[in-house]
Amino acid sequence: MLKKAESLLKISSIYLGTVLGAGFASGQEHLLFFVRFSKRGFVGCLLAGFLFSFLGGLILEKSYELSEKSHRKYLELVLGRNVTRIVATLTEIFLCISFCIMLSGAGAFFSERLGVPSYMGVLLTDLVCLFVFMFDMRGVSALNLLLTPIMLFGTIYVCIYTLVTESMPVWQVQVHPHGIFLPYAVFYVGYNMLTAISVLVPAASLATDKKTAIWGGRLGGLLLSVLAALCCLALSAVPSVHEKALPMLSLSERAGTFAHIVYSAVIFMAMLTTAVSSGFAVQRRLTSFGVHPKTAAIIICLISIPLSLVEFSVLIEKFYVAFGVLGVGIIGGIIWSWYKNKE
Question: How far is Cα 11 from Cα 13, in angstroms, rounded to an integer?
Fold first, then answer.
Protein backbone atom coordinates (compact mmCIF):
# COMPACT_ATOMS: atom_id res chain seq x y z
CA MET A 1 0.00 0.00 0.00
CA LEU A 2 2.83 2.36 0.88
CA LYS A 3 4.60 1.62 -2.41
CA LYS A 4 1.40 2.33 -4.34
CA ALA A 5 0.98 5.68 -2.60
CA GLU A 6 4.61 6.55 -3.26
CA SER A 7 4.36 5.72 -6.97
CA LEU A 8 1.07 7.65 -7.20
CA LEU A 9 2.72 10.73 -5.72
CA LYS A 10 5.78 10.39 -7.94
CA ILE A 11 3.75 10.19 -11.14
CA SER A 12 1.37 13.03 -10.22
CA SER A 13 4.27 15.25 -9.10
CA ILE A 14 6.12 14.62 -12.38
CA TYR A 15 2.96 15.56 -14.32
CA LEU A 16 2.38 18.65 -12.19
CA GLY A 17 6.03 19.69 -12.27
CA THR A 18 6.17 19.31 -16.06
CA VAL A 19 3.24 21.66 -16.73
CA LEU A 20 4.10 24.08 -13.89
CA GLY A 21 6.67 25.84 -16.01
CA ALA A 22 7.78 29.44 -16.22
CA GLY A 23 4.67 30.46 -18.17
CA PHE A 24 2.31 28.88 -15.63
CA ALA A 25 3.96 30.06 -12.42
CA SER A 26 4.67 33.55 -13.79
CA GLY A 27 1.05 34.01 -14.91
CA GLN A 28 1.90 34.71 -18.55
CA GLU A 29 0.11 31.59 -19.81
CA HIS A 30 -3.06 32.40 -17.89
CA LEU A 31 -3.19 35.91 -19.32
CA LEU A 32 -2.63 34.69 -22.88
CA PHE A 33 -5.02 31.73 -22.88
CA PHE A 34 -7.70 32.57 -20.30
CA VAL A 35 -7.80 35.85 -18.35
CA ARG A 36 -8.00 38.12 -21.39
CA PHE A 37 -11.32 36.49 -22.32
CA SER A 38 -12.87 37.43 -18.95
CA LYS A 39 -15.68 35.07 -17.77
CA ARG A 40 -15.46 33.06 -20.97
CA GLY A 41 -11.80 32.48 -20.25
CA PHE A 42 -12.62 30.96 -16.88
CA VAL A 43 -14.94 28.48 -18.60
CA GLY A 44 -12.02 27.68 -20.91
CA CYS A 45 -9.80 27.19 -17.87
CA LEU A 46 -12.22 24.62 -16.40
CA LEU A 47 -12.36 22.78 -19.72
CA ALA A 48 -8.54 22.70 -19.84
CA GLY A 49 -8.46 21.29 -16.29
CA PHE A 50 -10.83 18.48 -17.23
CA LEU A 51 -8.73 17.61 -20.29
CA PHE A 52 -5.52 17.54 -18.23
CA SER A 53 -7.01 14.99 -15.85
CA PHE A 54 -8.77 12.90 -18.49
CA LEU A 55 -5.81 12.78 -20.88
CA GLY A 56 -3.32 12.15 -18.08
CA GLY A 57 -5.18 8.99 -17.13
CA LEU A 58 -5.41 7.79 -20.75
CA ILE A 59 -1.71 8.38 -21.44
CA LEU A 60 -0.58 6.55 -18.31
CA GLU A 61 -2.95 3.65 -18.99
CA LYS A 62 -1.49 3.00 -22.46
CA SER A 63 2.07 3.72 -21.36
CA TYR A 64 1.94 1.15 -18.60
CA GLU A 65 1.23 -1.55 -21.18
CA LEU A 66 4.17 -0.59 -23.42
CA SER A 67 7.29 -2.75 -23.17
CA GLU A 68 9.41 0.14 -24.49
CA LYS A 69 8.31 3.25 -22.64
CA SER A 70 9.27 5.97 -25.14
CA HIS A 71 7.00 8.74 -26.38
CA ARG A 72 7.61 7.65 -30.01
CA LYS A 73 6.27 4.17 -29.30
CA TYR A 74 3.27 5.70 -27.56
CA LEU A 75 2.55 8.04 -30.47
CA GLU A 76 2.82 5.14 -32.93
CA LEU A 77 0.17 3.34 -30.88
CA VAL A 78 -2.34 6.21 -31.01
CA LEU A 79 -1.45 7.92 -34.31
CA GLY A 80 0.12 5.24 -36.48
CA ARG A 81 3.73 4.93 -37.64
CA ASN A 82 3.61 7.27 -40.65
CA VAL A 83 1.93 10.18 -38.86
CA THR A 84 4.20 9.67 -35.84
CA ARG A 85 7.33 10.32 -37.91
CA ILE A 86 6.14 13.84 -38.63
CA VAL A 87 4.51 14.55 -35.28
CA ALA A 88 7.39 13.18 -33.21
CA THR A 89 9.92 15.26 -35.13
CA LEU A 90 7.88 18.44 -34.61
CA THR A 91 7.37 17.50 -30.94
CA GLU A 92 11.11 17.13 -30.44
CA ILE A 93 11.64 20.56 -32.01
CA PHE A 94 9.08 21.96 -29.58
CA LEU A 95 10.80 20.29 -26.64
CA CYS A 96 14.08 21.90 -27.62
CA ILE A 97 12.36 25.28 -27.85
CA SER A 98 10.50 24.67 -24.56
CA PHE A 99 13.81 23.96 -22.84
CA CYS A 100 15.15 27.26 -24.18
CA ILE A 101 12.00 29.11 -23.07
CA MET A 102 12.43 27.85 -19.51
CA LEU A 103 16.05 28.99 -19.48
CA SER A 104 14.96 32.37 -20.87
CA GLY A 105 12.35 32.59 -18.11
CA ALA A 106 15.07 31.96 -15.54
CA GLY A 107 17.02 34.82 -17.08
CA ALA A 108 13.99 37.14 -16.85
CA PHE A 109 13.47 36.07 -13.23
CA PHE A 110 17.06 36.81 -12.21
CA SER A 111 16.93 40.16 -13.98
CA GLU A 112 13.58 41.31 -12.51
CA ARG A 113 13.85 39.78 -9.03
CA LEU A 114 17.58 40.01 -8.27
CA GLY A 115 18.68 42.80 -10.59
CA VAL A 116 21.48 40.76 -12.16
CA PRO A 117 22.15 40.16 -15.89
CA SER A 118 19.71 37.67 -17.39
CA TYR A 119 22.48 35.47 -18.80
CA MET A 120 23.49 34.55 -15.24
CA GLY A 121 20.06 33.03 -14.63
CA VAL A 122 20.26 31.17 -17.94
CA LEU A 123 23.68 29.70 -17.16
CA LEU A 124 22.81 28.72 -13.57
CA THR A 125 19.60 26.93 -14.61
CA ASP A 126 21.44 25.25 -17.46
CA LEU A 127 24.05 23.87 -15.04
CA VAL A 128 21.41 22.56 -12.62
CA CYS A 129 19.63 20.81 -15.51
CA LEU A 130 22.90 19.27 -16.63
CA PHE A 131 23.43 17.85 -13.13
CA VAL A 132 19.90 16.33 -13.04
CA PHE A 133 20.28 14.83 -16.53
CA MET A 134 23.28 12.86 -15.35
CA PHE A 135 20.96 10.74 -13.15
CA ASP A 136 18.41 9.94 -15.90
CA MET A 137 14.78 9.23 -14.80
CA ARG A 138 15.80 8.94 -11.14
CA GLY A 139 17.02 12.53 -11.22
CA VAL A 140 13.82 13.83 -12.87
CA SER A 141 11.62 11.98 -10.37
CA ALA A 142 13.61 13.12 -7.33
CA LEU A 143 13.61 16.76 -8.46
CA ASN A 144 9.84 16.85 -9.06
CA LEU A 145 9.02 15.01 -5.83
CA LEU A 146 11.10 17.53 -3.89
CA LEU A 147 9.97 20.77 -5.55
CA THR A 148 6.35 20.15 -6.61
CA PRO A 149 4.78 20.35 -3.08
CA ILE A 150 6.53 23.68 -2.49
CA MET A 151 5.26 25.04 -5.82
CA LEU A 152 1.76 23.75 -5.12
CA PHE A 153 1.33 25.31 -1.69
CA GLY A 154 3.18 28.53 -2.60
CA THR A 155 0.87 29.15 -5.57
CA ILE A 156 -2.29 28.32 -3.61
CA TYR A 157 -1.31 30.70 -0.79
CA VAL A 158 -0.65 33.67 -3.08
CA CYS A 159 -3.91 33.11 -5.00
CA ILE A 160 -6.09 32.74 -1.92
CA TYR A 161 -4.49 35.76 -0.23
CA THR A 162 -5.20 37.86 -3.30
CA LEU A 163 -8.82 36.73 -3.54
CA VAL A 164 -9.45 37.36 0.16
CA THR A 165 -7.83 40.80 0.36
CA GLU A 166 -8.74 42.40 -2.98
CA SER A 167 -11.91 44.49 -2.90
CA MET A 168 -12.32 44.58 -6.68
CA PRO A 169 -14.91 42.02 -7.81
CA VAL A 170 -13.58 39.26 -10.01
CA TRP A 171 -14.20 39.89 -13.76
CA GLN A 172 -15.09 43.56 -13.19
CA VAL A 173 -12.41 44.55 -15.71
CA GLN A 174 -12.88 42.76 -19.01
CA VAL A 175 -9.52 42.90 -20.75
CA HIS A 176 -10.67 40.98 -23.81
CA PRO A 177 -14.36 40.08 -23.37
CA HIS A 178 -14.89 38.94 -26.96
CA GLY A 179 -13.16 36.32 -29.05
CA ILE A 180 -13.03 32.60 -29.66
CA PHE A 181 -11.93 31.42 -26.23
CA LEU A 182 -12.51 27.64 -26.40
CA PRO A 183 -9.83 26.93 -29.03
CA TYR A 184 -7.30 28.71 -26.81
CA ALA A 185 -8.20 26.39 -23.93
CA VAL A 186 -7.59 23.36 -26.15
CA PHE A 187 -4.37 24.91 -27.55
CA TYR A 188 -3.18 25.39 -23.99
CA VAL A 189 -3.64 21.72 -23.16
CA GLY A 190 -2.25 20.77 -26.58
CA TYR A 191 1.17 22.34 -26.29
CA ASN A 192 1.50 21.14 -22.70
CA MET A 193 0.74 17.59 -23.85
CA LEU A 194 3.74 17.76 -26.18
CA THR A 195 5.98 18.00 -23.14
CA ALA A 196 3.84 15.90 -20.80
CA ILE A 197 3.69 12.84 -23.07
CA SER A 198 7.47 12.74 -23.40
CA VAL A 199 7.78 12.49 -19.61
CA LEU A 200 4.60 10.66 -18.59
CA VAL A 201 5.31 7.69 -20.88
CA PRO A 202 8.62 6.77 -19.18
CA ALA A 203 7.11 7.76 -15.80
CA ALA A 204 4.68 4.85 -16.17
CA SER A 205 7.59 2.60 -15.21
CA LEU A 206 7.32 4.04 -11.68
CA ALA A 207 3.80 2.65 -11.19
CA THR A 208 3.25 -0.54 -9.19
CA ASP A 209 0.21 -1.46 -11.31
CA LYS A 210 -1.99 -0.09 -14.10
CA LYS A 211 -4.59 1.39 -11.73
CA THR A 212 -1.91 3.38 -9.90
CA ALA A 213 -0.56 4.65 -13.22
CA ILE A 214 -4.01 5.83 -14.33
CA TRP A 215 -4.79 7.58 -11.05
CA GLY A 216 -1.35 9.19 -11.02
CA GLY A 217 -2.26 10.92 -14.29
CA ARG A 218 -5.73 11.84 -13.10
CA LEU A 219 -4.51 13.25 -9.79
CA GLY A 220 -1.82 15.33 -11.48
CA GLY A 221 -4.39 16.72 -13.91
CA LEU A 222 -6.85 17.50 -11.12
CA LEU A 223 -4.24 19.44 -9.16
CA LEU A 224 -3.33 21.35 -12.33
CA SER A 225 -6.97 22.32 -12.89
CA VAL A 226 -7.33 23.64 -9.33
CA LEU A 227 -4.13 25.68 -9.59
CA ALA A 228 -5.01 27.09 -13.01
CA ALA A 229 -8.48 28.16 -11.82
CA LEU A 230 -7.06 29.88 -8.73
CA CYS A 231 -4.42 31.71 -10.77
CA CYS A 232 -7.03 32.94 -13.28
CA LEU A 233 -9.29 34.22 -10.52
CA ALA A 234 -6.44 35.99 -8.72
CA LEU A 235 -5.08 37.62 -11.89
CA SER A 236 -8.54 38.76 -12.98
CA ALA A 237 -8.95 40.54 -9.63
CA VAL A 238 -5.78 42.65 -10.08
CA PRO A 239 -5.55 43.90 -13.69
CA SER A 240 -2.71 46.27 -12.76
CA VAL A 241 -0.23 43.36 -12.81
CA HIS A 242 -1.12 42.23 -16.34
CA GLU A 243 1.62 44.32 -17.94
CA LYS A 244 4.34 42.82 -15.74
CA ALA A 245 6.77 40.23 -17.11
CA LEU A 246 6.01 38.06 -14.05
CA PRO A 247 2.45 39.01 -12.96
CA MET A 248 2.06 36.25 -10.36
CA LEU A 249 5.28 37.40 -8.73
CA SER A 250 3.79 40.90 -8.48
CA LEU A 251 0.73 39.41 -6.76
CA SER A 252 2.97 37.66 -4.23
CA GLU A 253 4.53 41.01 -3.33
CA ARG A 254 1.11 42.17 -2.11
CA ALA A 255 1.00 39.20 0.27
CA GLY A 256 4.07 40.37 2.21
CA THR A 257 7.84 40.01 2.12
CA PHE A 258 7.91 36.36 3.16
CA ALA A 259 5.32 35.34 0.54
CA HIS A 260 7.23 37.31 -2.10
CA ILE A 261 10.47 35.51 -1.25
CA VAL A 262 8.79 32.09 -1.23
CA TYR A 263 6.98 32.69 -4.52
CA SER A 264 10.20 33.90 -6.09
CA ALA A 265 11.60 30.48 -5.28
CA VAL A 266 8.41 28.85 -6.65
CA ILE A 267 8.85 30.55 -10.02
CA PHE A 268 12.45 29.43 -10.31
CA MET A 269 11.47 25.88 -9.29
CA ALA A 270 8.71 25.87 -11.93
CA MET A 271 11.14 26.93 -14.62
CA LEU A 272 13.58 24.29 -13.48
CA THR A 273 11.14 21.36 -13.39
CA THR A 274 9.78 22.03 -16.88
CA ALA A 275 13.24 22.69 -18.28
CA VAL A 276 14.35 19.33 -16.88
CA SER A 277 11.28 17.56 -18.31
CA SER A 278 11.73 19.05 -21.79
CA GLY A 279 15.48 18.56 -21.86
CA PHE A 280 15.21 15.02 -20.54
CA ALA A 281 12.96 14.03 -23.47
CA VAL A 282 15.47 15.44 -25.95
CA GLN A 283 18.28 13.64 -24.13
CA ARG A 284 16.35 10.36 -24.44
CA ARG A 285 15.97 10.94 -28.18
CA LEU A 286 19.68 11.57 -28.68
CA THR A 287 20.58 8.43 -26.76
CA SER A 288 18.35 6.42 -29.14
CA PHE A 289 20.86 7.34 -31.86
CA GLY A 290 23.68 5.83 -29.82
CA VAL A 291 24.86 9.04 -28.11
CA HIS A 292 26.03 8.44 -24.54
CA PRO A 293 23.49 9.92 -22.05
CA LYS A 294 26.04 12.22 -20.41
CA THR A 295 27.31 13.42 -23.79
CA ALA A 296 23.72 14.04 -24.89
CA ALA A 297 23.09 16.10 -21.75
CA ILE A 298 26.13 18.28 -22.42
CA ILE A 299 25.12 18.82 -26.06
CA ILE A 300 21.58 19.90 -25.10
CA CYS A 301 22.75 22.31 -22.43
CA LEU A 302 25.32 23.93 -24.72
CA ILE A 303 23.25 24.45 -27.87
CA SER A 304 20.28 25.85 -25.93
CA ILE A 305 22.11 28.91 -24.62
CA PRO A 306 21.85 31.23 -27.71
CA LEU A 307 18.04 30.97 -28.10
CA SER A 308 17.59 31.25 -24.33
CA LEU A 309 18.86 34.83 -24.49
CA VAL A 310 15.74 35.91 -26.45
CA GLU A 311 13.11 37.78 -24.36
CA PHE A 312 10.92 35.38 -22.35
CA SER A 313 7.48 36.84 -23.17
CA VAL A 314 8.31 36.94 -26.89
CA LEU A 315 9.16 33.23 -26.93
CA ILE A 316 5.89 32.31 -25.18
CA GLU A 317 3.75 34.43 -27.53
CA LYS A 318 5.40 33.20 -30.74
CA PHE A 319 5.78 29.49 -30.06
CA TYR A 320 3.17 28.28 -27.57
CA VAL A 321 0.02 28.95 -29.62
CA ALA A 322 1.66 27.60 -32.80
CA PHE A 323 2.66 24.32 -31.18
CA GLY A 324 -0.70 24.20 -29.41
CA VAL A 325 -2.25 23.52 -32.83
CA LEU A 326 0.03 20.49 -33.19
CA GLY A 327 -0.95 19.37 -29.71
CA VAL A 328 -4.63 19.46 -30.64
CA GLY A 329 -3.92 16.82 -33.27
CA ILE A 330 -2.28 14.61 -30.66
CA ILE A 331 -5.20 15.11 -28.26
CA GLY A 332 -7.56 14.03 -31.04
CA GLY A 333 -5.47 10.91 -31.64
CA ILE A 334 -5.44 9.99 -27.93
CA ILE A 335 -9.21 10.37 -27.57
CA TRP A 336 -9.91 8.52 -30.83
CA SER A 337 -7.67 5.63 -29.76
CA TRP A 338 -9.49 5.47 -26.43
CA TYR A 339 -12.88 5.53 -28.17
CA LYS A 340 -11.94 2.71 -30.57
CA ASN A 341 -10.71 0.51 -27.73
CA LYS A 342 -13.86 1.22 -25.76
CA GLU A 343 -15.98 0.17 -28.71
Answer: 5
Name every residue whose Cβ is closer than 8 Å to that of residue 218 and which is 6 or more positions away in sequence: 53, 54, 56, 57
Max CA distance (Å), the chain: 59
How far is residue 56's CA from residue 62's CA, in Å, rounded to a whole number? Answer: 10
pLDDT digits (tens, 9 = 90+) for 297-336: 888 888 888 777 766 556 566 666 677 777 888 888 888 8
Whether 248 and 267 have beta carbons less than 8 Å apart is answered as: yes
Cβ burial, residue 166 (10 Å; 0-12/13-18/19+):
middle
pTM: 0.78
45: exposed, middle or buried (Cβ count in 10 Å: 0-12, 13-18, 19+):
buried
Residues 13 and 144 sit within 8 Å (Cβ to Cβ): yes
User: What is the rounded distance in angstroms from the CA atom of residue 92 to the CA atom of residue 54?
Assistant: 24
Q: How many CA atoms lie within 13 A of 7 on its CB side?
A: 21
